[in-house]
Amino acid sequence: MENKTETETDTREDIGNIDDMETSPFLKSSMFEDRPFTMTVKKAKKDYLPEKDGTLKKASILGFLKTDKEMRLNVTNKRTMKAMFGKHTSDWIGKRITLIAESVNMGPDRTKGIRIIGSPDIPEAFIAEFEIVRLINKIPKTDHVKRPLGISDPNNHGEFKWIVEPPQVNDKNSNPAPAVSNEVK
């Protein structure tokens, strides 16, 4: 085995989370570092985005103040926005929403995804209830979702705390309450 000279030695440098190096225009769950963030909606739009198979699919997208990153709304987040602010997307502009990365179903798999967990702009904590039809092994399955939404206070240099705890849901068919303590620093 040859000895390497100083100029030939391996240099290893931690370049951070590889997911953050992607040039995607969209928010990624890895950007949240298990902390909730409150962002202000700047725009809501429809666009056609490529799927894994190369086809284009219509998507609902939110843009935010203070970042160029956007968020593609999945069915759960779309219905959550509707429950908090109504069905007209023009009413969403200027509203603050609190996002967190949490474990979600993506087809048959569990992965980290971005969820809307509340807003400082809703008058009181409540449980949003809606149905989502999913295809599991090409068979439609209807899930009745109960999503607790809280009133959040994003002040104090990024600290997050609930002003009002969201109601707890103890239903086997519901998503669990967000795993957020009273104060996260």
What is the strand and helix layout of this fold?
Blueprint: E1 37-50, E2 56-64, E3 70-73, H1 75-85, E4 96-106, E5 109-118, E6 126-136, E7 139-149, E8 151-153, E9 160-164, E10 183-184
Antiparallel strand pairs: 1-2, 1-4, 2-3, 4-5, 6-7, 8-9, 9-10
Residue windows where pLDDT falls under 50 for at least 5 positions: 156-162, 172-185
Mean pLDDT, as a whole number? 75
What's the number of extended β-strand segments?
A: 10
The amount of helix comes to: under 10%
| Major sheet size, sense and barrel closure | 5 strands, antiparallel
Based on secondary structure, the structural category is: mainly beta
Enumerate the strands of the largest sheet in spatial order, edge to edge or round the barrel: 3-2-1-4-5
Count of separate DSSP helical elements: 1
The H-and-E topology, N to C, reads as EEEHEEEEEEE
- What is the percentage of strand-forming residues? 35-45%
